[in-house]
Amino acid sequence: MSESPQRADGDSREPALDLVGLTKRFGATTAVNGIDLRMPRGQLLALLGPNGAGKTTTIELCEGFLRPDAGTVRVLGLDPIASGAALRPMIGVMPQGGGAYPGIGCAEMLRLVASCGANPLDVDWLLDVLGLSTCGRTPFKRLSGGQQQRLSLACAIVNRPELVFLDEPTSGMDPQARRLVWELLAALRADGVSVLLTTHLMEEAETLADHVVIIDHGEIVASGSPTALTNGDPENTQVRFRARAGLDTRLLAAALPEGYAVRETSPGSYRVDGSVDPQVISAVTAWCAQQGVLAEHLQVGKRDLEDVFLELTGRELRT
Fold first, then answer.
1. Per-residue confidence at 233, pLDDT binned at 50, 70, 90?
2. Example GO molecular function term (predicted)?
């Protein structure tokens, strides 16, 4: 990149975020329930959770858009409400839902945001980096969903913030745009910018995050690096394979030693959890032969972040 989105100078002795006993209620509903979270500077932290778990509320408390009912919030060492005027030039915010004027042109919107900063990035360079140069005159409301997301991201980083809040930054993007954004976020982190993002894409969190926090019902249920969260029991590996949908997995479970779990994770996708050895692989292929099917794309590996997420938050659909 020819232009470096480096952070502004700040007091690096203070953490990027320091939340203690953070609580927020909406009537009888407790959206955030006593969260303690400390995020060092220069880190990319992924905040994960099902719909309604409290992710967006937590971010809005950090941004100063909501006032906590209990606990304390410090962002770059400052109270986001009492010191909001001092904090705003130091942070970037990418909300869900775009955050731009519907009728304003793409480039005009970014220049408007850049005019509020003391040392903004070059707007034309940033539009080019995010693949928006060809739609600079297109009104926001006529951009595709992915283009709107990329413009919202550009608005969040154009003024060289020290800390960026990104709520579902790649939602609605095609794979090429998503990879482009991942590269930009990696460059931000390399330049020392602190990034807090929420995402429903486990691959995104696993690829980008230094630290992952999983919350459910307003409480932290797991915290650690992606590697630490997915390693778990080193003996707990798994076999994944594809075959005809709807096979009777009880027959395979009966052919395996006690303690193994077998399930069809989605139509035609099967998984065996347990300590995998050559005998287990042989049992899987023999069972497939008995069913008259071929075990395709057979892979042996450890559980991934999605497995951990589902184990902690359940498999039921949230609204």
1. low
2. ATP binding
Instruction: Give one DSSP letter per residue of 137-192, joined into a string.
Output: TSBGGGS-HHHHHHHHHHHHHTT--SEEEEESTTTT--HHHHHHHHHHHHHHHHTT
**Residue ranges in 27-158 assigned as alpha helix (H):** 55-63, 84-87, 106-114, 123-129, 145-157
For the chain, give the number of residues. 319
**H or E element, residue 249:** helix 249-255
The rounded radius of gyration (Å) of the Cα atoms in the chain is 23
Distance CA 262, CA 272 (A): 5
Q: For residue range 102-119, list pLDDT tens digits in order.
A: 899 999 999 999 999 999
A 10 A CB-CB count for 192 gives: 14
Q: In what order do the strands lie in the sheet with 29-39?
A: 29-39, 17-26, 70-75
Cα 14 from Cα 256, distance rounded (Å): 53
Contact status, residue 204 vs residue 182, Cβ threshold 8 Å: yes
Q: What is the dihedral of CA 72, 190, 153, 30, to 10 degrees?
A: -20
Predicted confidence band of residue 12 (pLDDT cuts 50, 70, 90): low
Structure confidence at residue 99 (pLDDT): 74
C-alpha separations of 215 from 24, 117, 259, 309, 312 in Å: 14, 34, 29, 10, 9
Kindly report the backbone phi and psi dihedral angles of residue 205, in degrees, each rounded to the nearest multiple of 5, phi listed first: -65, -45
What was the pLDDT predicted at 96? 78
Among candidate residues 52, 77, 20, the one with its CA nearest the CA of residue 194: 77
pTM score of the predicted model: 0.80
DSSP state of 105: B
| pLDDT, tens only, 43-83 | 999 999 999 999 999 999 999 999 999 999 999 999 999 99
